[in-house]
């Protein structure tokens, strides 16, 4: 190296370095300017955009679902409650080992394969910090197991949500209806904003009819969350308004008695306070436990209910359409009196059968097969009602004509929806010549009028319609739409009046007297329930044929399949002078009215026992 | 030649001015003050960025103390010694890198560490200083501007450690080290024709390389790197959040420890690589300007030291260290603001971490050694 001494030109090197430093500095300033421009642009020009983004990051709007209104009976007995239901969820982000956690949970609580399957589907759809539900409706023991083991189960949470609970199970199933999980179809029709955070909606019955009032208004809170979605604090809160409570006309005790009386049978009881139109009891059996539907009924349970021959899901009180049988006779009698075709003293000869002029066919009276003859040589109105004389009403029906019957019975609300405040009500049929031409495309035959006269043939009514018609008789012409709800929150609801039925007082007296004889008369068809009765009751029995009986064939109950036996019906109101309850009972295939009237007696007893009159 | 150089300081006469206390201690006072201000500012931001953890501040404070001690110690040796030691440091560093390749300790799929007696360290850190020092030594002892064959030797000297580091793999560090070497060549006065020529060749070879040499998935990775927002949930999420943090800071910021993006964990790596976003969110553009102001003053002082250096070695080393320091700033701030692809580069003296701080301060120690060299008469 020493041989090649390099002479460095220090001044030149310094000049070079100075020039390069200037270039480098220029470059540095340029790039710093670029950085500054970038930060200026982000922080000054786009400040609004990023402020908003940052707020959106931090602040989340959380819905606060309202508390669903409660439902009480007339005396404050709670019929539909809200109870906390505990849901077991996993926050995947905090779970250390998912499979191990699932296995550990499986030992603490029951987890079905279907739960796991649904969990895995949901887990794929949610963000890692959202809780993914694994099991709904934990019971107390399961909750305790989880609580004790929580320290070794990171990411496992148990959350409470208020959920509908029906403390009386099937007793009010048909009267109240039920709520269930909102389905996609409902999702499309509801105001989604109002249902944010709500998982249930009224599906049927009162729960559906009063959905808007029961639901309440959703509230909101703005919360600050961190990047993992954990809520750190509540910034603002707008409380939800709870739904309105409903106080019904229904009476728990009455409902219980009616339900007990119908136990093991298919049937329906509707009791109405004729003064208010309030429905005091509304029972359809068999029923089901409404709680099954709240969280989505299992297909096994649902199939069992759907496929049962007894159709427990069918609300017989408003959906069951039955021939009313002789229970229409008081109304037909009123029609005859009002039309001037009969008076209370008018009599009809009764050989046990009736024949239309010019027709050889004999229309039999029910008593013919028992006594081989009629009720009496001459039957008057009182006896016709008390003993349910068919011949008397065949004659009257013929003279009224089917349209006359139609027009008059229409005033009692038969053959059309009563307008009750629940869902799924059916109209029944009150036949007329026009109706038959429209519905069946056939002319009306005179013999068919006779059938209608005794509540058979095409005529179909619901138990609710019969109860309403009975309360019209009880009030002598006042007609109200039946109502289940008495108070909506603080507002008293009144049952709307339907055009009153104006009739001669003497005519009412005559018919009511006939109905009194049904129960209290020596030969009344329901005299069996009069024993020990401390009040007076007006009633009317009815038997509805399920299958047509051939001309002159003998009806033998024992030889007929149980399902083909006659329905037993009974309508009644009491106390006679100032009625406070009108009731309609039907027992499907009960054989005859004797299956129905003891039930009415028990219900009326229970009511009058409690109602100081 | 080395004899001649070693003689030079002794050959000069009296100093241009009497040495002050700072000069006697071999400390550059303006640079020290600026560094103290910067590290203090960094600790303030770190307290907030670490979720108001005093522990993190104390830990980082200890690193700073260590780093200042290293800086002070390095400033005590004159540039002649540093120049002499430079090639040995380089050889040692390359040996370590080779050892890493053979027997290194791995973490997260990369093999970057060497374990010596229970102490784990990263040899690439040595090269961050050894490469510019070696280039300065090699070119400083030759006539400048450098001849082509000298440039070729320098490129080889740069390529060896870079190649070893790329294999670890650590592309970011490799590029920074390569840049620090190239800056040395640039400062030594390499001809512009050479620079532009190389640049043109690089540009024209990029297209065929892209077309024929890269697999589709590699292209995809590069594209994602260049446009992170195309991957909103992965790498892009980080950038979206850091831009949101910066932008929502506005002019005056949300206030110290009041940044919602950082305090609520929306910002990734808020106390390390992304700490500038915390600063920008909480102190606003004002705070960014303050930081940039400090950086600019440090850079200006560093250039000034280089301009006044007494030897080519000192000049080239200063220029290289200063530009590398700037590249750290630019790459980090540009990456967090979404200007540049995301590469793991800390914000100098602000991001939490020990090694980078010690290496950077060691570099400033070298600058101070240069600035307090004995001065030549008549300069």
UniProtKB/TrEMBL annotation, chain A:
Superkingdom as given in the UniProt entry: Bacteria
Location in the cell: Cell inner membrane; Cell membrane; Membrane
A Pfam family that the UniProt record links to this protein: Transpeptidase
Protein name: Peptidoglycan D,D-transpeptidase MrdA
Gene Ontology biological process terms from the UniProt entry: cell wall organization; peptidoglycan biosynthetic process; proteolysis; regulation of cell shape
TM segment ranges: 21-40
Catalytic reactions on record: Preferential cleavage: (Ac)2-L-Lys-D-Ala-|-D-Ala. Also transpeptidation of peptidyl-alanyl moieties that are N-acyl substituents of D-alanine
Cofactor binding, per record: Binds one Zn(2+) ion per subunit.
Organism: Congregibacter litoralis KT71
Active site, UniProt feature: 326 (acyl-ester intermediate)
Cofactor(s) listed: Zn(2+)
GO molecular function, one term: penicillin binding
UniProt cross-references to PANTHER family, sorted A to Z: PEPTIDOGLYCAN D,D-TRANSPEPTIDASE (PTHR30627), PEPTIDOGLYCAN D,D-TRANSPEPTIDASE MRDA (PTHR30627:SF2)
InterPro entries: Beta-lactam/transpept, Beta-lactam/transpept-like, PBP_dimer, PBP_dimer_sf, PCN-bd_Tpept, Penicillin-binding_protein_2
UniProtKB/TrEMBL annotation, chain B:
Protein name as annotated: Peptidoglycan glycosyltransferase MrdB
EC number: 2.4.99.28
Location relative to the cell: Cell inner membrane; Membrane
UniProt pathway annotation: Cell wall biogenesis; peptidoglycan biosynthesis
InterPro entries: Cell_cycle_FtsW-rel_CS, FtsW/RodA, RodA/MrdB
The keyword NAD belongs to this UniProt entry's keyword annotation: no
Known catalytic reactions: [GlcNAc-(1->4)-Mur2Ac(oyl-L-Ala-gamma-D-Glu-L-Lys-D-Ala-D-Ala)](n)-di-trans,octa-cis-undecaprenyl diphosphate + beta-D-GlcNAc-(1->4)-Mur2Ac(oyl-L-Ala-gamma-D-Glu-L-Lys-D-Ala-D-Ala)-di-trans,octa-cis-undecaprenyl diphosphate = [GlcNAc-(1->4)-Mur2Ac(oyl-L-Ala-gamma-D-Glu-L-Lys-D-Ala-D-Ala)](n+1)-di-trans,octa-cis-undecaprenyl diphosphate + di-trans,octa-cis-undecaprenyl diphosphate + H(+)
The entry's keywords: Cell inner membrane, Cell membrane, Cell shape, Cell wall biogenesis/degradation, Glycosyltransferase, Membrane, Peptidoglycan synthesis, Transferase, Transmembrane, Transmembrane helix
GO cellular component, one term: plasma membrane
Pfam family name, one: FTSW_RODA_SPOVE
Keyword Lyase assigned: no
TM regions (residue ranges): 29-49, 61-79, 85-105, 150-167, 174-207, 283-304, 316-343, 349-370
Alphabetical GO biological process terms: cell division; cell wall organization; peptidoglycan biosynthetic process; regulation of cell shape
PANTHER family, sorted: CELL CYCLE PROTEIN, PEPTIDOGLYCAN GLYCOSYLTRANSFERASE MRDB
Bilayer topology term: Multi-pass membrane protein
Function noted in UniProt: Peptidoglycan polymerase that is essential for cell wall elongation.
Family, as annotated: Belongs to the SEDS family. MrdB/RodA subfamily.
GO terms of molecular function: lipid-linked peptidoglycan transporter activity; peptidoglycan glycosyltransferase activity
């Amino acid at each position: 190296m020493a041989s090649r001494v390099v002479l460095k030109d220090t001044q030149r090197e310094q000049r070079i370095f100075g020039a390069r430093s200037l270039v480098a500095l220029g470059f540095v300033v340029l790039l710093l300017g670029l950085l500054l421009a970038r930060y200026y642009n982000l922080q000054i020009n786009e400040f609004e955009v990023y402020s908003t983004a940052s707020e959106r990051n931090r602040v989340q709007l959380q819905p606060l679902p309202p508390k669903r209104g409660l439902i009480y009976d007339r005396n404050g007995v709670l019929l539909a409650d809200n109870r906390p239901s505990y849901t077991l969820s996993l926050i995947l982000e905090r779970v250390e080992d998912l499979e191990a956690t699932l296995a550990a949970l499986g030992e603490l609580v029951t987890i079905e394969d279907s739960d796991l399957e649904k969990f895995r589907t949901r887990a794929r759809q949610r963000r890692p910090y959202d809780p993914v539900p694994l099991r709904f409706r934990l019971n107390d023991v399961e909750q305790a197991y989880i609580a004790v083991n929580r320290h070794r189960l990171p990411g496992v949470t148990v959350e409470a949500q208020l959920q509908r609970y029906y403390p009386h199970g099937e007793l009010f199933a048909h009267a109240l209806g039920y709520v269930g999980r909102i389905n996609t179809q409902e999702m499309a029709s509801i105001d989604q904003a109002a249902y944010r955070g709500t998982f249930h909606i009224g599906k049927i019955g009162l729960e559906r009819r009063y959905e808007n009032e029961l639901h309440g208004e959703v509230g909101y809170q703005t919360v600050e969350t961190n990047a993992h979605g954990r809520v750190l604090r509540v910034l603002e809160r707008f409380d939800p308004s709870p739904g309105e409570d409903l106080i019904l006309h229904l009476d728990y005790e009455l409902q219980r008695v009616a339900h007990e009386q119908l136990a093991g049978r298919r049937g329906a009881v509707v009791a109405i306070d004729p003064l208010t139109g309030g429905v005091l009891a509304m029972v359809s059996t068999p029923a089901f436990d409404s709680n099954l539907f709240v969280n989505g009924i299992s297909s096994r349970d649902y199939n069992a209910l759907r496929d049962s021959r007894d159709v427990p899901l069918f609300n017989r009180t408003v959906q069951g359409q039955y021939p009313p049988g002789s229970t229409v006779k008081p109304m037909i009698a009123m029609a005859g009196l009002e039309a001037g075709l009969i008076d209370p003293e008018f009599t009809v000869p009764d050989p046990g059968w009736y024949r239309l002029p010019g027709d050889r066919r004999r229309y039999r009276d029910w008593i013919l097969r028992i006594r081989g003859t009629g009720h009496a040589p001459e039957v008057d109105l009182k006896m016709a009602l008390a003993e349910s004389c068919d011949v008397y009403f065949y004659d009257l029906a013929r003279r009224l004509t089917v349209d006359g019957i139609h027009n008059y019975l229409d005033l009692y609300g038969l053959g059309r929806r009563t307008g009750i405040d629940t869902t799924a009500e059916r109209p029944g049929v009150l036949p007329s010549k026009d109706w038959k031409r429209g519905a069946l495309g056939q002319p009306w035959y005179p013999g068919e009028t006779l059938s209608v006269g005794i509540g058979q043939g095409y005529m179909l009514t619901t138990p609710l319609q019969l109860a309403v018609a009975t309360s019209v008789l009880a009030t002598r012409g006042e007609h109200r739409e039946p109502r289940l709800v008495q108070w909506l929150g603080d507002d008293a609801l009144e049952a709307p009046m339907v055009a009153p039925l104006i009739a001669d007082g003497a005519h009412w007296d005559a018919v009511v007297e006939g109905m009194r004889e049904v129960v209290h008369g020596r030969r009344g068809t329901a005299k069996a329930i009069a024993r020990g009765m401390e009040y007076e009751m007006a009633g009317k029995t009815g038997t509805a044929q399920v299958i047509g009986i051939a001309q002159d064939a003998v009806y033998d109950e024992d030889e007929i399949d149980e399902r083909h036996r006659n329905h037993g019906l009974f309508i009644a109101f009491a106390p006679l002078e100032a009625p406070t309850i009108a009731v309609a009972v039907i027992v499907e295939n009960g054989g005859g009215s004797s299956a129905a009237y003891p039930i009415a007696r028990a219900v009326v007893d229970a009511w009058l026992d409690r109602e100081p009159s | 030649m080395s004899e001649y150089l070693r003689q030079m300081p002794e050959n000069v006469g009296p100093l241009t001015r009497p040495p002050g206390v700072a000069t006697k201690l071999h400390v550059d006072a303006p640079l020290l003050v600026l560094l103290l201000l910067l590290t203090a500012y960094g600790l303030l931001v770190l307290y907030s960025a670490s979720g108001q953890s005093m522990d993190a501040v104390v830990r980082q404070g200890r690193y700073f103390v260590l780093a200042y001690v290293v800086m002070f110690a390095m400033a005590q040796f004159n540039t002649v010694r540093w120049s002499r030691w430079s090639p040995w440091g380089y050889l040692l560093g390359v040996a370590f890198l080779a050892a890493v390749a053979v027997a290194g300790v791995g973490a997260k799929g990369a093999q970057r560490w060497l374990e010596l007696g229970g102490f784990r360290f990263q040899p690439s850190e040595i090269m961050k200083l050894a490469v510019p020092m070696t280039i300065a030594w090699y070119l400083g002892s030759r006539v400048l501007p450098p001849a082509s064959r000298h440039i070729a030797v320098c490129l080889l000297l740069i390529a060896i450690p870079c190649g070893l580091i790329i294999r670890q793999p650590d592309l970011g560090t490799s590029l920074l080290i390569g840049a620090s070497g190239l800056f040395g060549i640039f400062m030594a006065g390499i001809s512009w024709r050479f620079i532009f020529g190389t640049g043109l060749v690089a540009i024209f070879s990029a297209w065929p390389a892209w077309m024929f040499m890269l697999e589709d998935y590699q292209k995809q990775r590069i594209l994602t790197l260049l446009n992170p927002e195309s991957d909103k949930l992965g790498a892009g999420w980080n950038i979206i959040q850091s831009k949101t943090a910066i932008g929502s800071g506005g002019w005056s910021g949300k206030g110290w420890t009041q940044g919602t993006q950082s305090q609520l964990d929306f910002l990734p790596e808020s106390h390390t690589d992304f700490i500038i976003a915390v600063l920008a969110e909480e102190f606003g553009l004002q705070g960014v300007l303050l930081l940039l102001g400090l950086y600019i003053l440090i850079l200006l002082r560093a250039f000034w030291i280089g301009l006044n250096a007494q030897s080519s070695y000192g000049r080239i080393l200063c220029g290289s260290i200063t530009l590398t320091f700037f590249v750290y700033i630019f790459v980090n701030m540009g990456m967090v603001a979404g200007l540049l692809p995301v590469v793991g580069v800390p914000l100098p003296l602000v991001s939490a971490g020990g090694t980078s701080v010690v290496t950077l301060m060691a570099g400033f120690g070298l600058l101070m050694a240069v600035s307090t060299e004995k001065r030549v008469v008549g300069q």
